[in-house]
Amino acid sequence: MKLYFKYLLILFKSQMQYRTSFWLLTIGQFFIPFTVFTGLYFLFERFGQIKGWNFSEVALCFAIIHMAFAFSECFVRGFDMFSSLVVNGDFDRLLVRPRSTVLQVLGSRFEFTRFGRLLQSIMVLIWAVSSIPAEWTVLKIVTLFFMILSGVFIFSGIFILAATLSFWTIQGLEITNIFTDGGREMAQYPLNIYQKWVTRFFTFVIPFGCVNYFPLLYILDRTEGNDLFYMITPLAGILFILPCLFIWRFGVRHYRSTGS
User: Fold this and answer.
1) Over the stretch 165-199, which tens digit does the pLDDT of each residue have?
2) pTM, whole model, 2 decimals?
3) Sign of CA dihedral 217, 223, 226, 227
4) Distance between CA atoms of 101 and 119, rounded to whole angstroms?
């Protein structure tokens, strides 16, 4: 972790060399999800609710998923941009260093301008928490924290899987954005508003439902049966990172060096 924080500090200093550009990009990242949230507001202003969910409840879901995505884009951006290391042959240098390739790829890129997106998500989260008529207990606050953490691990896992494909495809594939950008847009609504096959896929394959649906039912006191099941579902999202790391190791073992 000491090495990781050195990577972080070095890249932060390099990005701050162009402060005007940095702050303009940060402001831009603040307004991008803000326009999406404005569209969400007008949607509920027109229809009132979507399948039993009101605006403040969906706003909580929106804030959680966008906060998780902001953290992932900031700290796991190295995997999102990994294909350039393979194309340029720079991944060979990482292999001969006495540190984990995961750590080195993580430390190769940070996008601190994503704090603009994070700030906007925090503002929406605070508003949604204060607007929802729920009795907030310590367990619900802990569940909320793990919902955000679970989302971070899921997006990070998708970035890792997309990076692993680069070992065979060389260039990054835009199709993976279906599960990153598309997953973010889909998961900003409660999962039960979609068709059953979508709900099942994003529960048992990519467990976004363990972030934005089951634990949300617990927070809103809409559970059926044992509350413990709904509380611990975010752990499935955290465990999602394990098979992704296993597939990454498989890809590293089958990587063909440039030989240069």
Assistant:
1) 888 876 666 677 778 878 888 888 888 888 888 88
2) 0.87
3) positive
4) 31
